[in-house]
Design goal:
Keywords: DNA-binding, Transcription, Transcription regulation. The protein is an alpha+beta fold. 48% of the residues lie in helices and 14% in strands.
Length: 297
Amino acid sequence: MNNLLRFDTIGEYNIFNNTETKHPLVTVVDFSKANPRQYFMANFGFYAIFLKEVKCGDLIYGKNTYDYQEGTLVFVAPGQIAGANSKEIYQPKGYGLMFHPDLIHGTSLGRFIKEYTFFGYQSKEALHLSERERSIVLDCFTKIDYELERGIDKHSKRIIISNIELFLDYCTRFYDRQFITRNHVYQGVIERFENLLNEYFESEKSQTIGLPTVAYCAEELNLSANYFGDLVKKETGKSASEYIQFKLIDVAKERIFNLDKNVSQIAYELGFKYPQHFARLFKQKVGYSPLEYRSMN
């Protein structure tokens, strides 16, 4: 990819966007100050959150346009590649919050950063903000930038990290709202998930590929694993892996009544490499071993 850029440090990214580096590990960027540019792809060595200022319909991911005109948030984790391929020249608009992993090492945010699963979402699963939510986001950015303007002192790191954590907690709340208000966009995902598992176990995939995984199901449904897992949890109360296990045990119960096959054959057909793993999971979920369940019924 010829137009792939790489930004390993906050300073490099600030230079690219005509932004002063006030802190080596964190920055708030006003993209309107950057020079006009072509769309590009970039590999980021730090966490990056983009508040994109677009009119409804200007930006399309897949077959869907954004629902809100006020802006959207896109989250990028270190090592991820983000951007767009196009030769069009455009003037960037919006704001960005970037912070290096070194900023949060040894802090509570560093320990719990993986719980903010939206850093693993695809761009089409971006957070669509209402006007009120956008104001809250900008207020968080303003408070962080205020601390950067003051200069670094013994309080700076704690206050900046606290404001980043507050911002991410707000984003978690906003995504909870989005799972409800944008339900029509992913309407039928659970039904398609159920059908996918039915087809999987009815085919020979379990024998050739193995047990279905969350990553496999998410890819088949054209969703990121993180977004898919969060969506299933919101809709069913179960994690995606728990849902798969529930379906697996349901299929196993039915097959156990086939007396022409022993438990080991059934385990292999379901995708288990070792029958004892199947027996252990079955007893854990049902309360009886496969043979005990067969004899009881």
